Amino acid sequence: MGMTYAYDPAGRDENTSVAVLHRALDLGADLIDTADVYDPCTNEELVGRAFADQFPNGRRFGEEFLRLLREGPPWPTLDTVTRRLDGL
């Protein structure tokens, strides 16, 4: 999701990005990829602002998630993924 990173930074418009997110859900999208490779935290913040009124409980989770991203998770991400894959 390159709405807050790359792809012509000067041409970004948050209102347009929010409209695109809402339209995507209207059309049936069921995944919004905000992986930290797309600029840590900024996509999550955009999604949080876009849907704050629709998913208030998710916002509480999102705030904790963003805190972990900013401060660093209590575990190394690669180790976590490796452990999960080993359990398959």
Automatic annotation (TrEMBL):
* Gene3D superfamilies tied to this protein: NADP-dependent oxidoreductase domain
NADP-dependent oxidoreductase domain segment(s): 11-55
For this protein, the record's InterPro entries field holds: NAD(P)_OxRdtase_dom_sf, NADP_OxRdtase_dom
Q: Give the stretches traversing the membrane.
A: none
Q: Which Pfam families did the record assign?
A: Aldo_ket_red (PF00248)
Protein name (Swiss-Prot/TrEMBL): NADP-dependent oxidoreductase domain-containing protein
Query: Native species of this protein?
Result: Streptomyces kasugaensis
